[in-house]
Amino acid sequence: MHRVNEEAFKQSFSWAAADTEAQGASMELRITSIRARCQVCHSETESDDPVVACGRCGALSFDVVQGSEMILESIEYENTSCAQ
């Protein structure tokens, strides 16, 4: 299961925005819990940390139900380069 490292993501965002109109922009990252379903006993586990083993049967095989997606919720933009 993949988790977003918040500090690495913010640094990458800053580098990608450098020397563009987005330079100096800020971003807010909201990380959701992981929800995984065991492939053996089909129980679901929800956690803020990566799930390693099923808490019910100990299996190591999971299907990610929630937590691997990344959704851009909004963009706010102010054009400051136009003369007033």
Proportion of helical residues: 10-25%
Order of helices and strands: HEEE
**In what range is the share of β-strand residues?**
15-25%
How many β-strand runs?
3
Largest sheet: 3 strands, antiparallel
Mean pLDDT: 84
Q: Any idea what the radius of gyration is? A: 19 Å
How far is it from the N-terminal to the C-terminal residue, by CA? 50 Å
Arrangement of strands in the largest sheet: 2-1-3
Specify the number of helices: 1
Q: Which structural class fits the helix and strand makeup? A: alpha+beta
Show unreliable segments.
none
How many structurally independent domains?
2
Instruction: Indicate the overall shape.
Output: elongated
Task: List strands and helices in order, with pairings.
Elements: H1 6-17, E1 34-38, E2 44-47, E3 62-66
Antiparallel strand pairs: 1-2, 1-3
